[in-house]
Structures are given as C-alpha cells and as structure tokens.
Amino acid sequence: MPAIKSLTLPMTEQSVRELVVGDLVTLTGDITITAGLPTHRRIIEYMEAGRPLPIDITGDTLFHLGSYSQETDGRFEVLYMNPTTSTRFNSLMPGLIRHYRLRLIGGKGGLDMACTQAMQEVGCVYLSFLGGGCPLLTDAIQSVVAVAWDDLISHYRLVRLRVADLGPLVVAIDSHGGSIYEQCTRTAEERLPEIMKALDAERGHRVVPSAATKAPDEVQPVR
Q1: What's the pLDDT score for residue 29?
Q2: Which of 5, 13, 148, 209 could form a disulfide with 158 if both were Cys (CB 3.0 to 4.6 A apart)?
C-alpha cells in the first residue's frame, strides 16, 4: 500500500502536477462543496456574466459532495457529507476547470476525457471519494466557513468547509492525462472478446434435458 500524502490547501499548480494516478492523499484546509446541478449552472451564469462568485473558487477546489445540514439560531451546521456522481456534471466541468483554474476536483464515478483534457491544461487532479464513506469523511469537518445561495436546498448550496485530514482519497485522474476510469474501460474492452468467447463456449456445452432423461416425477403424463 502506498504511503498517504498529507496535502495542505490551497495547492500550487506545481504541487498538483507532482501527483499521479494511484496516489493516496488527505486534505487539510478549506474546501468548497456542492451536489447541485443547478448550482453548477448558476456558477456558469456568473462566469459568463463576469460576476464574482460569493465563494471564490479560483485556483482552488470544487468537490461533488452532498451534505445534510441544519440551521439553529442562524448557525449552519453540516451533519454529514457524502460524494455524489461527478459524471452528471461532465458537460459543465471543462469550462469551470479552465475559467477558475481549479486545482482539485472530485466526487465519485470520475469525469470524461473532455474534463481530463481541461485538467491537463491547467494543472488539476480528480480525487475519488469513498462512496458510502460518510462517517469517515464527516469526521474531517472542523467548521463551516461560508454558505452561499440560501435559496437552494441545503445540499445544493455552495458551502465552504474547513477540514483536517480529509480522506484518504485516491488521485483517480491526474494532470498528465492519466485516468483510472479510462484504464478500466480499456481493460474491459480488451477482455470483452475473450469473455464473450467463454460465454459462447459455455452455452454450447449446456445440455437441455429431454423427457427421456427427466426423473419419473418430472415427466408429465400426456392427456
């Protein structure tokens, strides 16, 4: 098992480019999260209008993490967080990565090659969060730094959290074009003919029982 790298946020482009696919990392510092497709679309609207975001993500993080929260006496508290599927945001992420020069993005399920290309250009990596690892991830939350867009449901809001030793997380797409997801796809495609051939052979050897070979109690009388 590789050693876990402890990363302090924010990160420089140079330090991000030192990470490679398969690295295990933990994060300490401030991160920005949201699980909302409407939130990503709103970020795009701000970007295209030249408006500053209420929480600046320039040269920083944007993680696809959903959260359950509560507000008590005006205090916003995140009770737990868990990753959401990043592929829902494939069409929006390349523009966000390039415009805000994001350094760390992540969630679960990965992103497509268009996103990988954008990450390669600016110096950004995709971190894979453990699906179902809610207790482990939530334990890393130290405090809520900022919350934006209160008109959205809580896990769609743009939220800034302070975390300590968040992880371990896997570098699943690096800034050199390496992608665990593309590797898995290629391996599956390469093995597919062999698998199909084995299945065809298995079907060919399978014998369908006839009435003559059935047990007496399985043979139905002719009426």
Answers
A1: 98
A2: 148
